[in-house]
Design a protein that fits this description.
The chain is mainly alpha-helical. The protein is built from nine helices and no strands. Helix 2 packs antiparallel against helix 3, helix 5 runs antiparallel to helix 6 and helix 6 packs across helix 7.
Length: 147
């Protein structure tokens, strides 16, 4: 509930993660036993400043979303799924055909590049995103390496 005003004001939420337990306990005891809020107030301000610095650092590390990837994310999933589930078909021709059906001519090369990038980054940990089974992935991978 303490974060509700922050969310409403579009500010970073407060977190007490990393706050020393002893400091938090003493601040609460000061309020409950001595009716003194100073330590809790100081702890709250310190935690707010620390949270803001952490969120600022995290935000700087985040990349801007790719508008093309966002616009065609469902199509990318469909194409990757089809390519892996049907390794007997030539992958690039399959991708070109699907892209030509659903993407404007001006964006086709860029979307095709995204498909190729997604295929290169494909690994067992992301199969659920594409609705693939591990056996399908293994068969596709074996087909790609010529096993």
């Amino acid at each position: 509930m303490a974060n509700l005003p922050f969310f409403r004001a579009n500010l970073c939420p407060l977190t007490f993660l990393g706050v020393p337990e002893i400091a938090y306990s003493r601040a609460l005891l000061g309020v409950y036993e001595l009716n003194r809020v100073e330590l809790l107030r100081d702890l709250y301000v310190w935690a707010c400043e620390r949270s803001t610095q952490e969120y600022r650092a995290i935000k700087q590390d985040l990349a801007e979303p790719d508008p093309l990837r966002l616009a065609y994310r469902d199509l990318l999933r469909q194409i990757i799924r089809a390519m892996v589930a049907h390794p007997e078909e030539e992958a690039l021709a399959q991708a070109r055909r699907k892209v030509a059906e659903h993407v404007s001519e001006a964006e086709r090369d860029d979307v095709l590049a995204l498909v190729i990038e997604e295929l290169r980054r494909l690994h067992a940990g992301v199969l659920a995103r594409y609705g693939l089974r591990p056996s399908e992935f293994t068969a596709w991978k074996d087909n790609q390496t010529g096993k």
